[in-house]
Specification:
single chain; mainly beta; 6-stranded antiparallel beta sheet; two-stranded antiparallel sheet; 1 helix; globular
């Protein structure tokens, strides 16, 4: 194996260790019901003419894959398919998009601490 191939392998492993898929934990509207997950990690909910509210609360753990998360950078990566989307973190609107601007990678914190709480809310309009 070449050095370049070995580096790619190491980088891939580190990327796997540093990501958490939270797709299955979204609650819809204020009911507390979890939104079903479909193929390709997509959320499934009936078509609506109104606003759909999704929310999750995240608490920063001490470790992830046995790696200390103290002082780490935490980002949120989202992809949506909706006429209009608003993203709120701890009650503050941090992103807005539509069908033509359907992806974002948000910086949540540059210096994470254990037990730090993030309330993530998404409005699909």
């Amino acid at each position: 194996m070449t050095i370049a191939a070995r580096f790619r392998q190491i980088i891939s492993k580190l990327e796997q260790l540093s990501k958490i898929n939270l797709i299955g934990n979204w609650e819809q509207d204020l009911s507390g019901e979890l939104v079903p997950v479909g193929e390709k990690d997509s959320l499934l909910f009936p078509q609506s003419n109104g606003v759909v509210h999704l929310s999750q609360t995240w608490i920063v753990p001490k470790t992830l894959s046995n790696l200390d998360l103290s002082n780490s950078i935490i980002r949120l990566k989202l992809i949506w398919w909706a006429s209009l989307v608003e993203v709120y973190i701890n009650g503050i609107k941090v992103q807005e998009g539509d069908l033509f601007d359907q992806k974002c990678r948000l910086l949540l914190i540059e210096n994470a601490q254990e037990d730090q709480i993030f309330k993530v809310e998404i409005k699909l309009i």
